[in-house]
Amino acid sequence: xxxxxxxxxxxxxxxxxxxxxxxxxxxxxxxxxxxxxxxxxxxxxxxxxxxxxxxxxxxxxxxxxxxxxxxxxxxxxxxxxxxxxxxxxxxxxxxxxxxxxxxxxxxxxxxxxxxxxxxxxxxxxxxxxxxxxxxxxxxxxxxxxxxxxxxxxxxxxxxxxxxxxxxxxxxxxxxxxxxxxxxxxxxxxxxxxxxxxxxxxxxxxxxxxxxxxxxxxxxxxxxxxxxxxxxxxxxxxxxxxxxxxxxxxxxxxxxxxxxxxxxxxxxxxxxxxxxxxxxxxxxxxxxxxxxxxxxxxxxxxx
Amino acid sequence: xxxxxxxxxxxxxxxxxxxxxxxxxxxxxxxxxxxxxxxxxxxxxxxxxxxxxxxxxxxxxxxxxxxxxxxxxxxxxxxxxxxxxxxxxxxxxxxxxxxxxxxxxxxxxxxxxxxxxxxxxxxxxxxxxxxxxxxxxxxxxxxxxxxxxxxxxxxxxxxxxxxxxxxxxxxxxxxxxxxxxxxxxxxxxxxxxxxxxxxxxxxxxxxxxxxxxxxxxxxxxxxxxxxxxxxxxxxxxxxxxxxxxxxxxxxxxxxxxxxxxxxxxxxxxxxxxxxxxxxxxxxxxxxxxxxxxxxxxxxxxx
Lengths: 302, 302
Fold this sequence. Notes:
The structure is a homodimer of 302-residue chains.
Chain A: E1 2-3, H1 4-14, E2 29-30, E3 36-44, H2 56-74, E4 76-88, H3 93-109, E5 113-122, E6 127-136, E7 153-156, H4 167-170, H5 175-184, E8 189-192, H6 197-208, E9 211-215, H7 216-219, H8 225-234, H9 238-244, E10 251-255, E11 267-273, E12 278-282, E13 285-288, E14 297-298
Parallel strand pairs in A: 4-5, 9-12
Antiparallel strand pairs in A: 1-14, 2-3, 3-6, 4-6, 7-10, 7-11, 8-10, 9-11, 12-13
């Protein structure tokens, strides 16, 4: 079995380098250069949402919000979006419209417009693929995953874990916070937490050529109430939910050692280090942990 | 039952107008303005390709080529692309790579680079969603669907019909021709024939507020050998294949009455008219025909 990170690595090895200003595999890519960025996210019914449980308006909202979160991760201001739909043939036109309007509403909140797309149908579950473009602020290059330095603090923008209880549909993309951080600091590196803090922090490490030590005591301060609720139900540790659930869509950032992230409402949860692994420090003991989190499995029956 | 054109109309009615330089519903949309355009196309296994029959390399080629064809339709030069994949979990990583390389090869032929994307998997058939960006030539606005005038000739860039015999996978997007036409004429309106000449010519008419008379005798001159082959097998008229098969990915254009399209290897097949319908003229008799062609059905069980 291969994970999506392995597949992306395979793709990167085989694609000729294109000079569009952003390394392949970051949250967004350059279109012509790093002034205007774009990214795409596909959501599948039964995987990323459940149309038998969730309202189409909320599903549409999520489909655009995950793209807005990519803009936040790069500190880009959302500009326009395309709406690609591959609808289960049983979805009524009124529901498809609701999906679009859910996306349109959150797009408008962020100054973004849905300007086109592609509409298809089939007899399989619905797949939604929004693409977003975001503009970087004049003179300010985008914040990449790859700029973390040993000694930087690892900070997060909010409490984590248990998002499946509902936040994965209703979260607020951290665009305004990201733009403010970008103007006033800027961060050395940034990513949005889509697949779990452990995996996404590790992605920053891999891109930056360093490692990170997560601090269990500090992580105790960012446990979301939903993580406690899920832990009470499933018997897993709340910390496990914080590290591995994903779909939090909070920012994870590398800030210079002296930066006061608290002034921006950020929470420090660890420190980037030279040693290239992911470790959890608890009671003065550091132990390696697996990146965990959510990954799409590729070719697991092949 | 609703067709995709109805759904797009519904979407357009409900989306606030966004000033990005291109009307909603054309082959591409403006990202910031009409200087840089983008579009997305989703292909589904079992609908647009068949992974049990077709090589992944050719499938990847098609997935990008349909987007290049949208660039041709607007007379935009391809710049960059994003690769969105929702892979059937049984697709091996080597096959996913083949898909990407098929796309990369034709991208490179057209000066386009695959700069990023999104990779997912599930236990349903594969969905591929490429997004492309194309740049308009300096000082030359893109060619829209909406500029056809009564009296203009309707021209096509090649023979039509029967593409399912293989051309739908191996066609050459008409980018170079489109750029040349754009520099030297330019056309009043343009579209690529993805869903059949009848439907796509009618889309030009709807956008332009006019009608078109297709000339059966002239259409007789653009019957592809594959249309004859399919007609011999299925008993339908070759002309029916020409009008309704789709996936030809040739250009259909409105040229001013006096324009000599032959100099560009184009074939005249009809005339735009004031009367807002689609008619076929044969033996001096004009009769209304249905747009026909391929449309995704939306909500047909709802």
